[in-house]
Amino acid sequence: MCLYLGWNPSATDIIVGLSNDSVAITSLGESQLEVEQEKAHNFKLWTTSFDIQQTHLAYTGSEDYKFNSWNLHGSPQVGISKFQHL
User: What GO molecular function annotations does the UniProt record carry, in alphabetical order (predicted)?
Assistant: First the structure.
């Protein structure tokens, strides 16, 4: 189930916080839609946001008291880099 939805300022990427503790990144290409889902937290993911200044960065927050930042440079197939901060 989708708990939170955010999109970057250019509206080419959407980040979705899911109730299964995962984040889904959807990239809207010229002729295709690419989706990647990754385990993000240990509890429900309640918030997502894109960085307004650096639109390749996204952030997630959860009931596990962790804040993750995601570097979306490159294609979604390459993977998402995440950094946890306590």
Answer: diphthine methylesterase activity
